[in-house]
Write a structure and sequence with these properties.
alpha+beta; 3 domains
Length: 370
């Protein structure tokens, strides 16, 4: 198994050049000084120059040194504060770096410790306590927002990665189960049939010279058995190409969850025929695709139940609604349902979501189809 790639740096730290605009706040306090000491200006420029290589090194995702980059960045801020209180900006960068490379609780504890040290330094070096408290408060507020944003982004990225792994695992297990089913179906369909064809062909060969009529009868039976086998193989291939409703529902849940859409499902266990299950699975796939692309929904409900003697699949969402039912996907959905003797109902008032109802007759149940 290949080594997993490191977790990518996200959101705040996706674009290294973009985040550099925060360095403006390093020089902001100097704008309010009546006289700007050259030492403060030069110290600020040197601090920025020392910070830049550390900032860009954070993006070398395979570099283990990045785990400790927050520490020299914080030290740059501490070193600058005696010359310019705008050095608190580097502490905010340090908070963000700690949140990127540490677990959430450890990052919060580290940021709190760094802030306490900075607040103590501000009280010691600034002439007025109120001024020191102002800088410490500003750092706490902005630093907490940056720290929380990075932690939230990492948690979201981790969840998305888990969803991708889960989706891949479901696909792998589905493929394995499908291969096993194909093997069983082919064995059941062709094993007995091919044995019967072989025996009848052998018998026809033996009867060919002595009893030509009996040989012709055996050949005719071989032809009939072969045609039956061909029809069964075609039916099996149709089933192989179609996806089961449960598998489609699992894929829909993952797709909706990755888009932050909640799914409620209420499925009554029903013995569906193969054609009916394939049609309902395709309808569910098309409906979920439309919801993700166009609806802007926050919640989706899927309900399967017995409706009279037949079957009802209801798919509803709380999105923007207003669909006309003339799209290619809905047209194909309607054609598949109609071919089974069912009906597709669409209720989609603008601004009030969409509800699809697929009603199939009693023949959709496997017991009725048998």
């Amino acid at each position: 198994m290949s080594q997993a790639e490191p977790t990518p740096i996200d959101d705040l730290h996706d674009r290294p050049w973009f985040t550099l605009w925060y360095l403006i706040f390093v020089f902001m306090p100097l704008l309010f000084w009546s006289s700007r000491p050259p030492a403060a200006i030069w110290a600020s420029l040197l601090a920025c120059a020392a910070f830049l290589p550390l900032h860009f090194r954070l993006y070398r995702r395979r570099d283990r040194v990045q785990t400790w980059l927050w520490l020299p960045v914080a030290l740059i801020g501490y070193a600058l504060i005696p010359f310019n209180p705008g050095g608190n900006t580097f502490l905010i960068y340090a908070f963000a770096m700690a949140a990127v490379v540490m677990p959430a609780r450890r990052a919060i504890a580290t940021a709190l410790l760094l802030w306490l040290l900075m607040a103590t330094e501000l009280v010691l070096v600034l002439p007025k306590f109120g001024l020191a408290a102002s800088f410490a408060t500003i750092t706490a507020v902005i630093g907490a927002m940056v720290l929380g944003g990075v932690i939230f982004s990492r948690a979201r990225e981790r969840r998305n990665a888990e969803l991708r792994l889960t989706r891949d695992e479901i696909a792998r297990l589905s493929a394995m189960a499908e291969r096993e089913r194909i093997g069983r179906d082919l064995h059941d369909l062709l094993g007995h049939t091919l044995s019967l064809i072989a025996l009848k062909s052998e018998l026809a060969g033996k009867l060919l010279e002595r009893k030509p009529e009996a040989a012709r009868q055996q050949i005719a039976e071989v032809e009939q058995v072969a045609r039956q086998a061909l029809a069964q193989v075609r039916e099996a291939v149709t089933g192989i190409r179609s996806s089961g409703l449960e598998a489609e529902l699992a894929a829909a849940r993952l797709a909706l969850l990755s888009a932050d859409v909640h799914l409620d499902q209420r499925l009554t266990p029903l013995p569906l025929s193969r054609d009916a299950e394939a049609a309902l699975a395709m309808a569910l796939r098309e409906a979920v695709t439309n919801i993700l692309r166009h609806a802007g929904a926050q919640r989706v409900e899927v309900e399967l139940q017995k409706h009279g003697d037949g079957v009802l699949l209801r798919i509803s969402d709380d999105g923007r609604g207003g669909i006309t039912g003339n799209g290619n996907g809905l047209t194909g959905m309607r054609e598949r349902v109609t071919a089974l003797g069912g009906v597709l109902l669409i209720d989609s008032p603008p601004g009030n979501g969409t509800r699809l109802e697929l009603r199939l007759p009693a023949s959709a149940l496997a017991e009725a189809a048998a």
